[in-house]
Specification:
Elements (H helix, E strand, L loop, with lengths): L33 H21 L5 E2 L16 H9 L4 E2 L8 H10 L1 H18 L16 E3 L35 E3 L10 H15 L3 H11 L3 H21 L4 H9 L10 H24 L17 H12 L6 H18 L7 H11 L16 H7 L1 H6 L5 H23 L10 H14 L7 H18 L2 H4 L16 H17 L4 H25 L9 H23 L1 H5 L6 H24 L6 H21 L9 H29 L13 H18 L7 H24 L4 H4 L11 H9 L15 H41 L18 H26 L1 H7 L12 H19 L2 H25 L11 H16 L7 H18 L3 H21 L18 H9 L4 H10 L15
Parallel strand pairs: 1-2
Antiparallel strand pairs: 3-4
Helix pairs in contact: 1-4, 4-10, 5-6, 5-7, 5-12, 7-8, 8-9, 8-11, 9-10, 9-11, 10-11, 12-15, 12-17, 15-16, 15-17, 16-19, 17-19, 19-20, 20-21, 20-23, 21-23, 21-24, 23-24, 24-30, 25-26, 25-27, 26-30, 27-31, 30-31, 30-33, 31-32, 31-34, 33-34, 34-36, 35-36, 37-38
């Protein structure tokens, strides 16, 4: 098995010791079963070869001072090796080493026959390893075409610093990080005999020397092939002996049979034994090809039992050659017989002594070394066309009769020379007018440009090797092409962008010649380079010193996004045009580089977002950096770059953020209302501090939400406004709760009394007018109430304005957020129903609070602030038009109250307060008439002045059309009007009405059938009932009424002269 780990190749396969199982079956050649050995070794040999091809030396453990050349491949347990490599373990080869050179020499001396049998076993096993001719039929890409040095293998570089420990759950570095190639080798497939490069060159020189016309050309080829002078002289000497026969037979592999015989002098090989062995190995190559053809033939030759003579099948002849070559001494007579055997075997196979394709290609490629200048390095000789012309006879003898395969192999040889120039000179070519590497590769590209696609399989294998080299050179072009690469790693072979352009074209032509489409290959190379570039970005970001502060993952992602965006820009600026301008390319090919960067980054980004990071400034900066990255990627990759698709990942984060913000808003509300004193500033109409602080919190919450500028569903906006609605409701509830309720303000109903003239006269004669309140309005109930109304109205106006501003801000937020997805993205415009009534809940709560606070304030004014004027004074001494009535005592105070309200509230709020004051005035007025105490008794003659006061009160609130609406005023005073209509009835009618009403109400209560109630807006709903009628009778200044009450109720006469609440 070739040692591909070091790029070196051991001695020929036919001489490599095989597995121990051969020792049990190698007593004689006749005991070796070819079929048995094939079954045993086929799978192991193929699999072991593949493993060593694809793994670096770092995956194997060797004893100190040894190399892979010292490994006994037959002793390796292939199945165990595969298992260990899959577990990323190091394979221990210390127990599979060959014996020392001294021990092997002694063993061969003592047991020559056993060693020869092992060679035969190795030959038959290797024969079974390849069931087809690997040279004539080799049409698939070979991984052996390009060989990288161990330094080009990927070496894992895990990040272990303390600052990046938190990154492991998101950034698990690949087991095979970035490649840093030092060298790459362009190599043709192996031959059966595994002749060394020196051997191939000697055979090529031999074939050229046969047809060389002058000594100058021969010397040029010798120097190019680096053939020692004495070896060249030996070759020329033997050629002269058999040149005549060769001329008659034409130039074929038969030459080496003649040379083998020519090596015999005086019945002995003498010092030219190695010369003979090289030719024998070359002939075994020819026999191997014949054997493969025989095996693959549909009608293989079967030897008859009665057929006389030796079996000259290629397998037997190969076995004999290998046995002979393993002997310490070679008999000259045996050489003559072997030549005859080979000659007969080849004649039977009718091969015409033509070397198989790869052997011929190898010989011709080595001869092409002559076209390069032997003095000036890395350039073509001035007479290169003449030399190529002189090589045509040899090329035709090697099966390269057409110009197309010769041009293809010429390009192959030039590329190999360019590789050597690049390794020696690097990217800096001081002293050269132009880059030798660029010059040579351009020449190779020109040779490949017009080559016919149809060619022999062996040449196709050379194109496979060239294709593999091109893929190797492009597999990480962001790291190996300068610019964009800017590192100073001398171990990496660097090329210029112009050279990269030529490599892209060569890769295209090589892929076309082997029957592949170049676009998928270049697409794959772009993706590989993008993945490698992204891995470097990850490593660079995770090594950043700033990771020690804050969220390391978040900071790393932001740096990765920035570095990746720079990589996309660099690719677009320096390399994209070379790929897109290559034949057969399209935008999708160059776009896949950016698309792969997007795919790699999105994987890390989504993993981080799904971990649920809080939306802080740090995390938002990272998400916003995605927009810059996406813009750079789209500018590079165009339509190949898909939108980032962030909304499904960021939406949960937005809702978590909203939950925290709304909780904080509710906390602010609680703090504001708990510290609010509702102190009135005499010279200021500003709202309360709690309302200002609350609005500031709402604005900050909304501003923070719109400043997120990340993709979010419109339901998040609804959730935010609903949270604000709830906070407003909490604020309004607290504002209402800071006032006394109406039920607490209105005193309870007093006990009923019946009329007694003496008592009434006594009470009225003892009446003393209560003093009017001198408390300033701002310190009274109206001051505190107006301050609350100012605050509520202030919030209502701001909420209405916010509702108008929310939709445009949301649209702007979504427009900015869509740029994170794709620079050309259009954000989704949702239906209007999502934006209807965004702040409806808040406005409804504020409207309700304004009404409740107005009502409670109005009742406080009537029942608390105006208690002396209203409840204590009016009508206590009877109904008079001049004093102690609504006009004289109540309306002046109400006028001052309304003036105070009008100076601090807008007209709409003023009307709400005025309506509440009217309602509270009617309530207090009716309470004076129905529950004003024993001194307040009325006659039918009092109705007229009372009705006049109703009209005066109505006109007061209508204010000549500038106050409340007349219909509203009429509605509010309707209960008073209805009460006066009842009071205008005679005592007899009142008593009859009472009895009828009481009877109906009792019957309804017994049957459970209640009369249908009137709407609550009906002002007479609470007036026309037996309770009101009874109270009117109790306050009737009529002896008959008092007698009627005495006869039916236990309502006594009040003897006390206490306040009106004391009866």
């Amino acid at each position: 098995v070739p040692n591909r780990v070091h790029g070196a190749w051991p001695r020929p396969l036919a001489f490599t010791p095989r597995m121990r199982i051969m020792d049990m079956t190698c007593e004689t050649d006749t005991t070796v079963s070819l079929e048995r050995l094939v079954r045993i070794e086929r799978d192991n040999a193929l699999m072991l070869s593949y493993i060593l091809d694809t793994n670096s030396i770092g995956n194997f453990r060797l004893p100190p001072g040894t190399t892979m050349n010292d490994v006994n491949y037959g002793a390796i347990d292939v199945a165990d090796m595969i298992s260990r490599l899959r577990r990323s373990e190091v394979v221990d080869l210390t127990t599979c080493m060959n014996e020392s050179c001294t021990s092997r020499t002694l063993e061969r001396s003592e047991s020559t026959r056993v060693a020869a049998t092992r060679v035969v076993s190795a030959t038959t096993a290797s024969t079974a390893t390849f069931s087809k001719n690997p040279f004539e039929e080799r049409m698939t890409p070979s991984t052996n075409g390009v060989s990288a040095s161990p330094a080009s293998e990927d070496v894992s570089q895990p990040v272990t610093t303390a600052s990046t420990k938190s990154l492991t759950s998101f950034f698990a570095l690949d087991d095979t990080p970035l490649s840093s190639p030092q060298t790459c080798e362009l190599r043709l497939p192996d031959t059966y005999a595994t002749l060394s490069v020196e051997n191939i060159r000697e055979l090529a020189f031999e074939m050229f020397a046969t047809v060389a016309c002058d000594d100058e050309q021969l010397e040029t080829v010798r120097l190019a092939l680096n053939i020692e002078q004495h070896r060249a002289d030996v070759v020329v000497k033997y050629i002269k002996k058999c040149k005549g026969a060769i001329s008659n037979e034409q130039l074929t592999a038969h030459l080496h049979l003649r040379m083998m015989l020519a090596a015999l002098e005086n019945g002995s090989l003498g010092a030219d034994e190695e010369f003979f062995k090289i030719r024998a190995r070359a002939m075994s190559e020819l026999l191997w090809s014949l054997q493969c053809s025989t095996q693959n033939s549909s009608t293989p030759h079967v030897r008859d039992d009665d057929e006389e003579g030796p079996d000259l099948s290629p397998a037997n002849v190969l076995a004999e050659i290998n046995r002979m070559l393993s002997l310490p001494d070679i008999d000259a007579a045996w050489v003559e017989s072997l030549v005859e055997i080979i000659d007969a075997a080849l004649e039977n196979g009718k091969t015409n002594f033509r070397y198989p394709g790869v052997m011929g290609v190898k010989l011709y490629v080595e001869l092409l070394s002559a076209i390069f200048d032997q003095v000036e390095d890395h350039t073509l000789a001035y007479d290169a066309p003449v030399i190529l012309k002189s090589l045509e006879p040899v090329a035709k003898a090697l099966g390269l009769a057409d110009e197309a395969p010769r041009k293809t192999l010429l390009a192959f040889a030039i590329v190999r020379k360019a590789i050597a120039a690049c390794q020696e000179l690097g990217i800096e070519c001081d002293g050269y007018d132009t880059s030798p590497v660029l010059f040579l590769l351009t020449k190779a590209r020109n040779e490949l440009r017009n080559v016919d696609k149809t060619m022999m399989p062996a040449v196709v294998s050379a194109m496979h090797a060239l294709l593999q080299w091109g893929k190797f050179m492009m597999s990480d072009f962001m790291h190996t092409v300068q610019p964009p690469a800017s590192h100073q790693d001398k171990s990496v072979m660097m090329i210029e962008p112009e050279t990269f352009d030529v490599v892209v074209d060569i890769t295209h032509y090589a892929a076309t010649l082997v029957g592949y489409e170049s676009a998928p290959i270049l697409t794959d190379m772009c993706r590989k380079s993008a993945r490698a570039e992204y891995e470097r970005a990850r490593i660079s970001a995770m090594d950043n010193d700033n990771l020690e502060h804050g969220d390391a993952v978040c900071t790393s992602l932001r740096h990765i996004a920035q570095i990746t965006a720079n990589s996309a820009d660099s690719f677009s600026a320096h390399l994209e045009r070379y790929i897109s301008n290559s034949p057969g390319m399209s935008e999708e090919v160059t776009g896949c580089f950016a698309a792969q960067l997007r795919e790699s980054f999105s994987t890390d980004l989504y993993a981080w977002l799904e971990s649920g990071p809080p939306l802080t400034i740090q995390s938002l900066n990272t998400i916003w950096a995605v927009g810059d990255l996406q813009s750079a990627l789209v500018a590079t990759g165009g339509t190949s770059v898909e939108p980032m698709g962030l909304q499904s990942h960021t939406a949960p984060l937005v809702f978590v953020w909203l939950s925290d913000k709304i909780d904080g808003l509710n906390t602010i509300v609680e703090r504001c209302v708990s510290t609010e004193q509702w102190r009135v500033n005499k010279d200021s109409n500003s709202p309360a501090p709690s309302a200002v602080d609350f609005l500031r919190a709402v604005n900050e919450t909304l501003t923070s939400f719109f400043n997120l500028r990340i993709p979010a569903h419109v339901s998040a906006l609804r959730a935010l406004t609903e949270g604000i609605d709830a906070a407003v409701r909490k604020f309004t509830s607290a504002t209402i709760a800071s006032l006394e309720s109406t039920d607490d303000i209105i005193p309870p109903r007093p006990s009923k009394t019946r009329y007694k003239k003496d008592i009434v006269q006594k009470l009225r004669s003892e009446f003393k007018r209560a003093r009017r309140s001198t408390t300033p309005l701002e310190s009274s109930s109206i001051g505190a109430g107006v301050l609350r109304l100012q605050s509520l109205k202030f919030l209502l106006e701001k909420m209405s304005q916010l509702e108008k501003d929310i939709v445009p801000q949301w649209m702007e937020m979504q427009r900015n957020a869509s740029l994170l997805e794709h620079p050309d993205a259009t954000f989704e415009i949702v239906g209007k129903q999502w934006f209807e009534g965004l702040m409806a809940g808040a406005k409804q709560a504020l409207h309700r609070a304004i009404n409740v606070v107005s009502s409670q304030t109005a009742y406080c004014v009537i029942y608390r602030d105006m208690q002396s004027e209203f409840l204590d004074n009016i009508y206590y001494t009877g109904v008079h038009r001049s004093c102690d009535n609504i006009t004289s005592d109540v309306l002046p105070f109400l006028d001052g109250v309304l003036g105070y309200v009008a100076s601090r509230l807008d007209s709409q709020s003023r009307n709400v307060v005025a309506a509440a004051l009217l309602e509270a005035t009617v309530s207090g007025w009716m309470r004076v008439l129905l529950d004003g105490g024993p001194a307040r008794v009325f006659t039918s003659g009092d109705i007229e002045p009372l009705e006049e006061e109703v009209e005066i009160l109505s006109d007061f609130f209508i204010a000549g059309g500038q106050g409340l609406d007349a219909a509203m005023v009429a509605e509010r005073v309707a209960p008073m009007t209805a009460l006066l209509s009842i009071m205008s009835l005679s005592t007899n009618d009142l008593t009859k009405n009472y009895e009828e009403q009481a009877t109906k109400e009792a019957a309804a209560a017994m049957t459970g059938a209640h009369a249908p109630s009137k709407p609550s807006s009906d002002p007479n709903a609470d007036v026309f009932n037996s309770e009101v009628t009874l109270r009117v009778i109790c306050h009737r200044a009529d002896h008959a009424a008092s007698k009627w009450i005495k006869a039916r109720f236990s309502i006594g006469k009040t003897e006390s002269s206490g306040g009106w609440f004391a009866f």
